[in-house]
Specification:
Blueprint (H helix, E strand, L loop, with lengths): L7 E5 L7 H12 L4 E5 L3 H13 L4 E6 L1 H12 L3 H5 L2 E6 L5 H6 L6 H9 L3 E12 L5 E6 L2 E5 H16 L2 H12 L6 E7 L2 E13 L17 E7 L3 H12 L9 E6 L1 E6 L5 E3 L2 E4 L5 E13 L3
Parallel strand pairs: 1-2, 1-3, 3-4, 4-15
Antiparallel strand pairs: 5-6, 5-15, 7-9, 7-13, 8-9, 8-12, 9-10, 10-11, 12-15, 13-14
Helix pairs in contact: 2-3, 7-8
């Protein structure tokens, strides 16, 4: 049954097991007279199921309370709908994840929830771009996945995989990240790749490649999700001390200053060969695609609620 257009659908993706964050959000919404319905995810699969339910039930404003992975699930659900349906929906975010890179790009602060809700209430909408990776999986199925931030190929995707494995053993997000960084020292550090972009082919060993429609977790800091372009950062092999220096530049927002980082701007990237490199999309692994795969950008396809 469809709902009134002014009623918000709130998709809450909890970071932990406590309910204080949820209660705080509900108090803020109630105090501002917002009409809303609240649903809570229990897993990655349930985010997609609940997002689809909110779309099908006619909500025109859908706010994701979560991080980059939850937002990624939300935009992929939206992109599965007809353009007419997608254009009628505005997507918002209240940052509540381990990584909130896309929300922070716009100025949403996870420590300033009141400000975030006030901005969302003003309903200022901007049409934004999405990147898209099209690939063939190991079952020989033709797949695609949209992204707000970036596609990582190589070492960073490997770190994501290590973090996922260690977290399943250790439980703690922070501890699993620290252990993953430590294990990286003993891990494969470069991958043979052949990548085509801007009528140029790069064929060599590359440590990691980041292709960003958005900020790319600091690896594509100049990328903007509304110019129809992809920013690409390729990191060639570097020594351990230089790698640590590169991590410091990443943390301090000066990643492109590292001499091993080679930046590009393009509309399309074709990875012609990278058989051993894992691929991550907005922090979530898609594995190792079979054969060549293509990454493009689709302009102004999602209506996103931005700050005043």
């Amino acid at each position: 049954m469809e709902v009134a257009n002014e009623r918000w659908g709130i998709l809450y993706c909890p970071k932990g097991y406590g309910s204080k964050q949820r209660e705080k959000i509900q108090r803020l919404l109630d105090g501002r007279g917002v009409q809303y319905d609240f649903v809570q995810s229990e897993s990655n699969d349930s985010v997609e199921r609940l997002m689809t339910m909110l779309i099908r039930n006619g909500y025109k404003t859908i706010v994701v309370v979560g991080g980059d992975s939850a937002l990624n699930d939300a935009v992929n659900c939206l992109m599965a709908e007809e353009k007419q349906v997608r254009d009628s929906i505005a997507l918002g975010v209240i940052p509540n994840g381990v990584l909130n890179d896309f929300a922070r790009y716009w100025g949403f602060d996870d420590d300033k929830m009141e400000q975030t809700v006030d901005w969302l209430l003003k309903h200022r909408v901007r049409a934004i771009d999405l990147g898209c990776v099209r690939y063939t999986n190991k079952k020989n199925e033709h797949c695609h996945r949209y992204f707000l931030n970036c596609v990582n190929i190589g070492l960073i995707a490997d770190v994501m995989n290590l973090r996922r494995q260690t977290r399943s053993l250790l439980g703690s997000r922070t501890l699993s990240f620290i252990v993953s960084i430590f294990l990286m020292i003993f891990h494969r550090m470069d991958y043979k790749m052949r990548v085509r972009l801007n009528n140029e082919t790069v064929e060599r060993k590359i440590m990691t490649t980041c292709i960003g429609s958005g900020p790319g977790y600091g690896q594509t800091p100049n990328a903007v999700p509304y110019n129809g372009m992809l920013d690409v950062s390729m990191v060639y092999h570097t020594e351990m001390m230089q790698l640590l220096g590169g991590l410091w530049l990443l943390v301090t927002g000066r990643f492109l200053n590292h001499h091993s980082v080679h930046p590009y701007r393009t509309r399309e990237v074709v990875v012609e060969d990278a058989p051993h490199a894992l691929v991550g999309v907005d922090g979530r692994l898609i594995g190792r695609p079979v054969g060549a795969y293509r990454i493009t950008v689709e302009q102004e396809v999602i209506n996103f609620l931005i700050p005043d």
